[in-house]
Amino acid sequence: MQPAHPSQRVLKRGDLVVEQIKRWITERNLRPGARLPKEVELQAHFGVSRGTMREALKALEVQGLIRLSTGPGGGATIEAVSLDRTFQFLQNYLFFQDIDVHDIYAVRRLLEPALAAAAVPHLGEEHFQALERSIACCEPMAGTAEALRQRTEDLHFHDILAEACPNAFLRFHCRLINALLQTLVVGSVHVSEAAYQALGCAAVVHHRKILAAARKQDAARVARLMLAHIADTEQHLEAVQAELRSKLLLDSEMKLRPAMILPAPPAP
């Protein structure tokens, strides 16, 4: 028997069971909400101990593929892997990579105009009202707390458009870019409040133009306006000396992510 290649991972018994359960789910085309058999039934089916099965189920829960519950009606329920969980894996991967704000914006310029244009035919009145509310919240006001909330809404505007895009793969990438901007972009403490206000004012102007074009169902104009908006935002981020803060994302932070961490600038 040939020894395992150094680059090949030797799977533990629990890992092998995880793979078997994934194949079992795939073969049966089980969807979110479907229940797996009881733990004792899974043990018998896969021929493993209680400890090994619990280890495998816990691993699947950590991966976001199932939800475990206890009690008389408890067990394992299949779940759609959340964007938060996917983003956590991506951010932890990027922690060891050499990227900066301009790398993110280089990809954003390529993808988001296409996403916005694709979303236009699928925007309904509920989307337009949500976009209007987002713009209203983005109006710059004095104070750090307000600035953080406004930056949250800047990106929420883009998430609303993303949710209307029918291309799930394109939507996925643009939502992940927004999530990266939410957690990793920081600004210098040596920049005046006026510079941060300019960032917010510019976003409001661009968002209003994009919304107006979307209401007219002018997808081509929406794409052009979105490209101009992204390029302008990148310039404003340069003005506030924005940079990427590399960090590992904790489970406790996954649903409490501020949109853009811009520390309070000193008084002019």
UniProtKB/TrEMBL annotation:
<dbReference type="Pfam" id="PF07729">
    <property type="entry name" value="FCD"/>
</dbReference>
<dbReference type="InterPro" id="IPR011711">
    <property type="entry name" value="GntR_C"/>
</dbReference>
<protein>
    <submittedName>
        <fullName>FCD domain-containing protein</fullName>
    </submittedName>
</protein>
<dbReference type="InterPro" id="IPR036388">
    <property type="entry name" value="WH-like_DNA-bd_sf"/>
</dbReference>
<keyword id="KW-0238">DNA-binding</keyword>
<dbReference type="InterPro" id="IPR036390">
    <property type="entry name" value="WH_DNA-bd_sf"/>
</dbReference>
<keyword id="KW-0805">Transcription regulation</keyword>
<dbReference type="InterPro" id="IPR000524">
    <property type="entry name" value="Tscrpt_reg_HTH_GntR"/>
</dbReference>
<dbReference type="InterPro" id="IPR008920">
    <property type="entry name" value="TF_FadR/GntR_C"/>
</dbReference>
<feature type="domain" description="HTH gntR-type">
    <location>
        <begin position="11"/>
        <end position="81"/>
    </location>
</feature>
<keyword id="KW-0804">Transcription</keyword>
<dbReference type="Pfam" id="PF00392">
    <property type="entry name" value="GntR"/>
</dbReference>
